Amino acid sequence: MTTRNKSGAFILILLFLLSPLLPLVEYFSGNWYSILHSYSIGMVFGIFAYGYFLNTLILSTRLPVFDRIFGQDRVMVLHGYLAMLALLFAGIHAAYKISFHFAITRQTVLGIASLAIFAAVIAVTLTAMVSGRLQRISFMQKFRTWLTAKTIFDYSKLKLFHNLTSVAALLAAIHVFMAYSTKESQTRMAIMNVWAGLALALYIWHKFIRLILLRRKSWTVAEVNRLSPGIAEISMERNAGNFKGQKAGQFAYFRFLSPECGMEEHPFTIASRPGSTSLSIIFKELGDYTAKLKNIKPGTTALVNGPYGLFTPLQKNPLLFIAGGIGITPFRAILQEWNHSGIEAPTVLIWSCRNADQMIYRAFFEECDKLHENFTFIPVLTGEGGQGRIEQSLLEKHIDKATLDQTEVFVCGPDSLNKACATMLTSIGIHKKNIRYEKFG
Predict the structure, then answer these.
(1) Predicted model pTM
(2) Average model confidence (pLDDT) for the chain?
(3) 219-228, strands of its sheet edge to edge
(4) Interatomic CA distance for residues 86 and 23, integer angstroms
(5) How do the domains of the chain map onto residue ranges?
(6) What CATH fold (topology level) applies to the domain 218-308?
(7) CA 370 to CA 60: how far, in whole Å?
(8) 43 φ, ψ (degrees, to nearest 5)
(9) pLDDT per residue as tens digits for the range 181-195
(10) Which CATH class is domain 3-214?
(11) Domain 319-437: which CATH class?
(12) Using 50, 70 and 90 to split pLDDT, how confident is the model at 68?
């Protein structure tokens, strides 16, 4: 991430974290003396919960400006943390309100309903949709396996359930509009109305209007090629215009309108180089959806939302690429482009796979190694008969100590590989700011 992008990301985080201060000032202007009253403290937490609630919804709409300065993968991380912070503050708000004065009214019912829906969505998301420390607990691993084995908890239904955040946001907005403290001032009503209106309008645009626009610029599946057992490539041709703005290493969200795999949307790295007349993705059968994806037929319509991501290296400093299995995909697109224009910076690609038959397009990387003096390809096989895993000694061998401070590392693979590489690289002396991960999934 460039210095400019880091500054933009910092400002973006501050904007989303501090934005509730605007309505807070309006609510307590002239009444700051009462802010430590239990009723007022509850209101403060409520204002912050409401703001974070709506900001979470805004972040989910994939606005290109957020991606350009922060990267869509990091936007989703911020989205998750902000959602949990909103839930925490909403819970504290409810506790204070109940302790001060509680009455069953339409307003309180709406607030409780909003909080309940939001809490349920976060609980299901943490349990069945994302990977993290919670899933490392043995019990949670077994519980998640049991949940995903049930049809009701398949990915498409989980995504649909996750969309209930928009319903929770709408209920929260009505709850706030009905509050006496909000209705006391036209300015307060305006601030809270505009904020909610913007969040919900962006959500409607993202979920419905954008889908209509994508249909007008749809793609058609040209070929489905099985590259090796469990790995396949889908190539697509665009029906109108070119795919603009793509940079090598980026990803997009793909929706194939086929009964073979369902019509749900999934992110995939773009495997074809920028400027190509076709678009392709490479996928490994890792779940129910990808197992069905190989069965789609040529002629199937595909809707593509993107490109997204900041996983695009610049040829200014020495580069180390580390890929695990299907994580080779962004590096293929990057090296396809550089193979065409020239490899200027010293670049090493280390690719780890279990077996040789998983090393799709290995011949391409070996050819690049022969053609370009600045490029080195290191295949690593971890399965039976292989040379073992990527170890620190291997990384040290291919990192020039003279340019240690300038070396930039790009890692794409399973979480286990990302964590292991982070530990080894920092031990070698690579600064964390020079290590970039692809975590769009």
Answers:
(1) 0.86
(2) 86
(3) 265-269, 251-256, 301-308, 219-228, 231-238, 278-284
(4) 16
(5) 3-214, 218-308, 319-437
(6) Elongation Factor Tu (Ef-tu); domain 3 (2.40.30)
(7) 44
(8) -65, -40
(9) 899 899 999 999 999
(10) mainly alpha
(11) alpha beta
(12) confident
